[in-house]
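Tokens as discussed.
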């Protein structure tokens, strides 16, 4: 893997954009041409300015900061709220480099909607998830009609600083992965919540119940990552014939757990399509 990226501008850096920005800095990747970030407030800009090698611009002090940030950037990461994307693109579009790659972090805004506003510029849509904030993310990326293999490779390298990257096919691929890795952390937290409740039902206090449940999930995940075996086989190895685990798993299966996860994923996918239409 190459150890550098071309000049990058983060236009807006909320929790996700800020996490990716920090991931790039922590990775030690050399940025040829600099790393610039804009935010509305001076307080947020001052916080990000502490990061090594980052030029941080406060829009309340520098109203044309977005234009300044993108003018020399090869990669432009759009990290503003979806409702602000249209105005932002109208602002920066005339000032983008011809070879710029615009990377969207905005949920519900399609590749076509970006391309319509940006003309001939390459666009890549991304779907990072919240574990990216601790360097353990899974990010889906999809290139638009003008994104080359080189463009995709550069964006992949950017997101690999905060975890794993999966290339998917267009908006449908982004919507699909959003139902798994994008929403998935919430599913895991929900399962941990319920396991905590089950532990408390068995008489453990709140702190101990959480310690047991969270530790069980992190331990099982670590085991999965350390072993070449599929999760189904690891599950079978825990499930002794006629034992306690087998009895519990039978309850889950009787409740239609597989169908429940499919229906939840379908509901999330349908909502992603609704968001795109609303956008």
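Sequence:
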């Amino acid at each position: 893997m190459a150890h550098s990226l071309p000049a990058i501008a983060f236009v807006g850096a909320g929790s996700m954009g800020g996490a990716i920005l920090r991931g790039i800095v922590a990775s030690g990747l050399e940025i040829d041409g600099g790393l610039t970030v804009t935010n509305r407030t001076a307080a947020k800009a001052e916080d990000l300015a502490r990061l090594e090698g980052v030029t941080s611009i406060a829009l309340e002090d520098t109203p044309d900061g977005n234009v300044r940030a993108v003018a020399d950037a090869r990669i432009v990461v759009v990290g503003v709220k979806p409702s602000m994307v249209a105005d932002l693109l109208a602002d920066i579009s005339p000032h983008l480099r011809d070879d710029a790659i615009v990377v969207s972090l905005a949920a519900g805004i399609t590749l076509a909607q970006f391309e319509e506003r940006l003309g001939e510029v390459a666009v890549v849509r991304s779907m990072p998830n919240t574990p990216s904030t601790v360097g353990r993310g899974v990010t889906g990326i999809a290139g638009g009609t003008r994104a080359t293999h080189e463009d995709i490779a550069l964006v992949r390298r950017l997101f690999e600083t905060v975890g794993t990257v999966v290339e998917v096919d267009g908006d449908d691929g982004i919507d699909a992965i959003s139902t798994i890795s994008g929403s998935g952390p919430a599913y895991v937290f929900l399962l941990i919540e319920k396991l905590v409740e089950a532990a408390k039902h068995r008489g453990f206090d709140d702190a101990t119940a959480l310690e047991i449940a969270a530790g069980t999930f992190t331990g099982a995940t670590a085991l999965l990552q350390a072993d070449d075996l599929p999760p189904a086989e690891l599950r079978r190895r825990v499930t002794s014939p006629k034992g306690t685990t087998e009895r519990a798993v039978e309850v889950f299966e009787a409740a239609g757990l597989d169908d429940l996860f499919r229906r939840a994923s379908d509901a999330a996918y349908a909502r992603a399509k609704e968001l795109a239409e609303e956008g």
